[in-house]
Predict the structure.
Amino acid sequence: MIRITILFFSRRVRLLLAGCALALAVLAGGASPARAQSVAVMVNGEPITNYDIEQRTKLNFLTTRKQMARQEVIDELINEKVKIKEAKRFGVDPTGSDIDQAFAGMSSRMRITPDQLVKSLESQGVRPETLKARLRADMVWTSLVRGRYKESLQVGEKDVAAAAQGSGEATQAEAFEYKLQPIVLIVPRGSAPAAIDLRRKEAESLRERVQTCEQANAFFKSMRNAAIRDTVTKTSADIPGPLRELLDKTPVGRLTPPEVTKQGVEMVALCERKPTKVDTPKKREIREKMYAEKYEAKSKAYLNDIRKAAMIEYR
């Protein structure tokens, strides 16, 4: 009798604890118990719930403005499950801090803060964790594929040259190597437009006076609220088209036109410009395209292999 009572009591405790755990999960996820328990697919023993599918559907629509079919969304989530499991097998497992940094990086590229990105997602009914889950899968897979197939993904210079020659543009655009010194006239954040305009006019005046990088260093190193950075070397392939055109029009020793940025008013001192055959924008474009094609093919084949080996059970 005592043994039966103890067993009954233990079972009651386990049920109570399970119920508490479920309630906490529901409160944390903001979902109803039915939706939280509704599993659509099991992938290697891990569930994909209908709520996961609903959340990813909303996120995909938010980022692409296209309504994906339910099965497409499910396939995407299955792929991410198998990618993450495979990555862990090789020790590729980013920390929560790594994911937060990636999330912050995305918000920075959108020119908003992480908190603003969170609010933007939540206003569309998307939990931040949904985006972070996708970021995690992308991070681990890119790292895994590039790490495991580094040698086979390399693009040979002969292949690049041949492709450039075949395009008929191999020697069309001249490439240069530039030695540059970035300059900033600091403007405190929140300054009035008049203060920014005054600083910009000061930059224009200095631009007319500076004839060499030596002069630029003498001016800006002694000036208050101004900074001139160390010389950096870039090729035409490293520089965006608009800035490249601007540098090609700027005489050596002179400064580029001032530009208002978050830091203040910025210019670039052009210390040297000389022709180079090391790389050209066209070759860089061809190389990146060839690498992307190799990566895409290897990634697709690898994913197909591990997905075939995965245990996928639809409910």
User: Anything to note?
Assistant: The domain at 38-170+281-315 is CATH 1.10.4030.10 (Triger factor/SurA peptide-binding fold).
